[in-house]
């Protein structure tokens, strides 16, 4: 099974097709191939630890594909919510950097 996974992930090529023009093929150096049935499952396995980190701050979250939405409610202490979310986001940013993922700052 391990050899099958390796063969699935290694040697993949990617290209851009726009306006009937195709770019040169380039090797896929990270991530999983887009459009594969197996890719979402592998991505979910890869980011499983991220959920544990988020839950460690008492923050709730939803994940869909490669998007993660965080939410935290404390109606009587809004300053606490800002502090908790700031610390959680910093931990998420650190984990993502360590694991070769990019956080989109315009969505945070």
Brief summary:
The chain is of the alpha+beta class. Helices cover 42% and strands 17% of the residues.
If you had to describe this structure to a student in words, what would you say it looks like?
There is one protein chain. The protein is built from four helices and six strands; from the N terminus they run H-E-E-E-E-H-H-E-E-H. It is of the alpha+beta class. Strand 5 (60-64) and strand 6 (67-71) form a beta hairpin. The longest helix is centred in the last third of the chain and has 21 residues, at 78-98. The protein is elongated. The N and C termini lie far apart (38 Å).
List keywords for this structure.
6 strands, DNA/RNA_pol_sf, 108 residues, single chain, alpha+beta, two-stranded antiparallel sheet, Reverse transcriptase domain-containing protein, elongated, two-stranded antiparallel ribbon, signal
Structural class: alpha+beta
Strand content: 15-25%
Question: Which whole number gives the mean pLDDT?
Answer: 88
**Total helical segments:** 4
Helix content: 40-55%
Order of helices and strands: HEEEEHHEEH
What is the makeup of the main sheet? 2 strands, antiparallel
Q: Which residues sit in consecutive blocks of at least 5 with pLDDT less than 50?
A: none
